[in-house]
Amino acid sequence: DSGVTQTPKHLITATGQRVTLRCSPRSGDLSVYWYQQSLDQGLQFLIQYYNGEERAKGNILERFSAQQFPDLHSELNLSSLELGDSALYFCASSVDRQVPDTQYFGPGTRLTVL
Amino acid sequence: KNQVEQSPQSLIILEGKNCTLQCNYTVSPFSNLRWYKQDTGRGPVSLTIMTFSENTKSNGRYTATLDADTKQSSLHITASQLSDSASYICVVSEDLGSGGYNKLIFGAGTRLAVHP
Q: What would the 3-class secondary structure string for chain A be?
């Protein structure tokens, strides 16, 4: 158990809908990262937040957005969902006080878009 | 273009045998290289992290090597166990300079199956 929690574990929805994925980082970790892993594909970095502020953006679609709240939990919002958005979405957290920092990954949310 | 390539794509070995997984990268400027283990459907778990000045690092039966000149890394697994069956992902960090942030570039992974 990494200490990072993600909810829900599974999500099934229809095209065009909007969903919110939630992540609670490890206690004391200030950075939260979101990744997408499509079937048989590598992990793709989406976005990073550090202490409530967006720090870095990766291959995140405009239909996707994220935020990190004062209590450091984060939410990833996916809208106008398409079939191709079906994937595992991972959240990771790190202390981020030094480089390199170890990222601890959550168990993931499996999103299925029908 | 910054890339990380892993080989082989998949590998089957017998329990108790050793194996070596390869990672070649073109990421520049380089900051560090990580190996992760990912069980099917679960989040990756960090095995090792190496910076430019480190050329070997061990974590139990896992030993990673790094040749920053040739931009190659390997992960050697000794005396494999059934629980080693997983995907092994090589991740190279691009040094973006400002604020200590590094951009992580993931390889596609090597899928290892250990058979009894």
A: CCCCEEECCEEEECCCCCEEEEEECCCCCCEEEEEEECCCCCEEEEEEEECCEEEEECCCCCCEEEEECCCCCEEEEECCCCHHHCEEEEEEEECCCCCCCCCEECCCEEEEEC
